[in-house]
Amino acid sequence: MNKSGSILAAILLGGLVAGTIDVGAAALINGAPVPVILKFIASGLLGKGARGGGADIAVLGLVLQWAMSLVIAAVFVLASLRLPVLRRNWPVWGLAYGVGIYFVMSYVVMPLSAVGHAPKFVMAGFAMNMAAMLVFGLIVAGCARWRLGKA
Fold first, then answer.
1. CA–CA gap between residue 99 and residue 108 (Å, rounded)
2. How far is CA 67 from the centre of its chain?
3. pLDDT value at position 147?
4. Helix or strand or coil: residue 33?
5. Which pTM was predicted?
6. DSSP state of 50
7. pLDDT at residue 1 above 70?
8. Could you report the per-residue pLDDT of 106-145, keeping only the tens digit for each?
9. Is 71's pLDDT higher than 90?
10. What angle do the packed helices 55-82 and 123-148 form, to 10 degrees?
């Protein structure tokens, strides 16, 4: 596979795998079925009314989740082309990236979405959601390392 194919593979694998696992983690953390989580994601675009929607709204939520996950993965993968240390020390940088993802999603994306506010801070929720984002960052960084190598 050529370099551009490896870059695309790293983005697709990292984004789709991490994004899919993130939906499952959100379902476990919130004790909610996956379609409810997907409708909540769609509500970021459509507003609170999306939560009462049907399967089409859940599919939209999945598409939005994967789109955001691919963008997040692309940022890391493309940054790692300029800064190979991100791939050489991928566990450390993947965890650091996960912390960044948590704060950007919680305190930038959610307030700017139709949801309109950051999540309420509760220590247990913070810890579980942060753990999910640490796993997300590790998956993205691991896929970058796997598809693009150390340097």
1. 14
2. 9
3. 95
4. coil
5. 0.94
6. G
7. no
8. 999 999 999 888 889 999 999 999 999 999 999 999 999 9
9. yes
10. 60
Per the rule left: phi > 0, alpha: psi between -120 and 50, beta: everything else, 116 is left
Tell me the average pLDDT across 46-56.
95
Using a CB cutoff of 8 Å and minimum separation of 24, what contacts does 113-122 make? 113/44, 113/45, 114/43, 114/44, 114/45, 114/46, 114/47, 114/48, 115/43, 115/44, 115/48
Please give the DSSP secondary-structure letter assigned to residue 30.
H
4 backbone dihedrals φ, ψ, rounded to 5°? -65, -35
Distance between CA atoms of residues 98 and 51, nearest Å: 27
Share of the chain above pLDDT 90, in %: 92
**CA 70 to chain CA centroid, nearest Å:** 8
List helix spans (H) across 31-115.
34-46, 55-82, 85-88, 90-104, 110-112
**Do 80 and 150 touch, CB atoms closer than 8 A?**
no
Q: How far apart are CA 56 and CA 118, in angstroms?
A: 26
